[in-house]
What does this fold into?
Amino acid sequence: MQFHPAFFSRCFAVSALLAANLLVALPALAQLPPEVDAALARAKLPREAVTFLVTDADAKAPPRLSHRANVPVNPASVMKLVTTYVALDQLGPAFTWSTPVYTDGPLQAGTLHGNLYIKGLGDPKLVVERLWLLLRRVQGLGIQTISGDIVLDRSAFETVPQDPASFDGEPLRPYNAAPDALLLNFKSVVMTFVPDRTAGVASVSIEPPLAGVQMQTSVPLMAVDCGDYRATLKPDFSDPSRIRFTGSYPATCGERTWPIAYADPKSYAARAVEGMWRHLGGKLGGMTREGTVPQSLKPAFEIASPTLTEVVRDVNKYSNNVMAQQLFLTLSLQQKGSGTLDGSRDVVGRWWRERIGDDPPQLDNGSGLSRSERITASALARLLQSAWASPLMPELMSSLPITGVDGTLRRSKARAAGAAHLKTGSLNNVTAIAGYVHAASGKRYVLIAIANHANAAAARPVFDALVDWTAKDN
It folds into this structure.
């Protein structure tokens, strides 16, 4: 027997509505578990600063614990659960991004007499290794010299002026990188320091090679304990065309890598592409610049990204903000033909009303790196219950950090190590976790805990106590 797809959509909507009514209709439980209450007191956090919800993953029973579950709060990176689940549902777990490459002139004796175009379509993981492979594919066409320009087309996403220091005053933190249709290596450089005791220096290398950027190739060694080696190096990143160090490197540190966001993100893509092209022995007669691909051109080839399932794992396990924003913008790019924040908010809002019901989240960029995003614990629980009942449950759940095992929960001090898959979130004044806990009884619970308070960073032991209390259910 075959059913029309609309039948399944209606069933999904009915089950979501029943779950919503169950969570909203029941009164909040009056008492917090004693161990959680005691942890709150030790953390000097008032009850009004936290939101807790523990309920069956299958939505068949009343919540085990509900405290301020219908109050909109800032979830920090827990909001990535919304973005990643909607992406899995709308795009499919096998979805991939393509990056097409075009030429507009004849090839003669290894020289392309014209321009080379690279069009970004939102690939969130076009890292150094894959940029190298893309340019090797160009050389595989027989091109060694480009007489014209390398043109980078970033028009698929709206370009929103963004100051990387505006959010928290940390412009060199890679997590502050802005989304980009042609996002290369997260607009970051990775510096590697390798000490050579015989020579008395540490060699310094940088990836990717950046055109027009001078890089200091060594720093003196210093015979001190390895403490804050970054401060000891006394770096100077003020000039985007030069990376230098006025200090020294502790010999006891051994080999270390240090990723930073490039100081001039607007020029990063052009510098990275041209730098890698020349590093591979390619020659360029013109310049590397921004532009758009002529509509008459057909791709010479395309490279594909890892699957959405792999990307979602990176987003959630390691809370990658710019990858989450790439996903968010891809939703409107795929449905509306252009990746815009307003368009993606509309896509998620419509999806939420159709699949989850009322109480939609207040979205900004979909990553949680925002002061304005809001969601209630009851709404987030309905999303997680919907995911639990979905064929996509394995993909979403396996992307979440495991307590005491990996990702952002690798150092979790919860005694229930391995028993919970939880997305974490943290901002100034915000700490959050949300996901699934496997209890001793064999039940699977949805757990949400969010603190919005000046002392929110002290909430982690409180959350550990809640995870342990949930896991002990028998």
User: Anything to note?
Assistant: Confidence is low (pLDDT under 50) at residues 1-30. The longest strand covers residues 188-196.
